[in-house]
Structures are given as structure tokens and as C-alpha cells.
């Protein structure tokens, strides 16, 4: 009989019991060293523990054992993004997108990494891909507005920020609607309107 240790580990992680989840997942890997799902879940636990080096190692191993799953590469990208290692983040997000070309969050985070590098035109392309796959993804419109501001294209910035604000209101997210209004006020000031 196979014990569902990786499933228990994931359940413990979802319940916030990180230490016990880590213990179960490490035991699962000890019993079955090629279990990609256990490495993936262990990487998520380690990410939540902010043990980024260990999380990267676990997620890289998960990617090796589950080459058709985009999530290990995506979460590696998230770690690199947190560490402001934008080149590594871009590489990881592109690997996730190559596996699953409709991965909205990967496109969005790719755009964030490109923005972090100062490559605002590339970030706009990534944010556009995210909104092509999910037209109500407010964060992508908001971030596109920031890219347009950096490029000095205030008319485009105003348009996407107004759309983002409308989406945030519709999605009952008043904090981000307020944040977006602050950016709209900034655009008005920068453009002299």
C-alpha cells in the first residue's frame, strides 16, 4: 500500500503547519526520491518559510522530475523576483510560459521582472499577453500604466489606469482603486493637466 504522504504534506502546508509539512514531504522524498510532486510542495513550504535557497533547489528538482508542469518554473521565478534577480526570474517565467502558453500569472510576473530591469516596452508586451488571456486582470492594466508612465506616454497610462480602476471597483477592491487613483493624479500632474 502506498501512503499518500505528499498529499498529507500539501494539506499540512495549506493548513499553515509548515514544520510538519516539511517533515512529511522530506519523508516522502526519502521513500521515493523521484517524486516531483513532493519536491514541488516542499519548495512551496520552503518559500513560505523564506528559505529561498532551499526552495529553489526543491523547485528545480521538481522541474526535473515533472518537466511538463509549469508551476515549478513559475515559483522559481517568483523567488528570483523577490530577490530582484530579474534576469533569472525572466528565464524561469519564460520556461513556465513555454510549457503553458496561457499562464496569465507567468505573463504578469514576467512583465514585473522586465519592469524591474527597466525594459518597459517588453513589460508592456507581457502585461498585454496577460490581459489577452484574462481581460479582467486589473493588476496587469495597473502595471501597464506604470510602464507607460516610465515611457512618458501619459495618454496611454491614463487609459489603462482608468480601466484598472474600473476593474478594481467592479471587483470590490477599494484599496487598489484608491492606489490607482493616486497614479491617475500623478499622471495628471506629470502631463500638466
Task: Provide structural commentary.
The termini are far apart. Helix content is 79%, strand content 0%. It has 193 residues and is mainly α. The radius of gyration is 19 Å and the shape is elongated. The chain is built from eleven helices and no strands. Mean pLDDT is 92; it is low at 1-6.
Rg over CA atoms: 19 Å
Relative strand content:
under 5%
Element-level helix/strand string: HHHHHHHHHHH
Question: What is the makeup of the main sheet?
Answer: none
The assigned structural class equals mainly alpha
The number of E-state strands comes to 0
Helix content: over 70%
Q: Stretches where pLDDT falls below 50 for ≥5 residues?
A: 1-6
> How many separate helices?
11
Cα separation of the termini? 71 Å
Keywords for this entry:
193 residues; mainly alpha; elongated; disordered N terminus
Annotate the secondary structure layout.
Elements: H1 5-14, H2 18-31, H3 36-48, H4 52-65, H5 71-82, H6 86-99, H7 104-117, H8 120-133, H9 138-151, H10 154-170, H11 174-190
Helix pairs in contact: 1-2, 1-3, 2-3, 3-4, 3-5, 4-5, 5-6, 5-7, 6-7, 7-8, 7-9, 8-9, 9-10, 10-11
Summarize the structure.
With 193 residues, the protein is mostly helical. It is built from eleven helices and no strands.
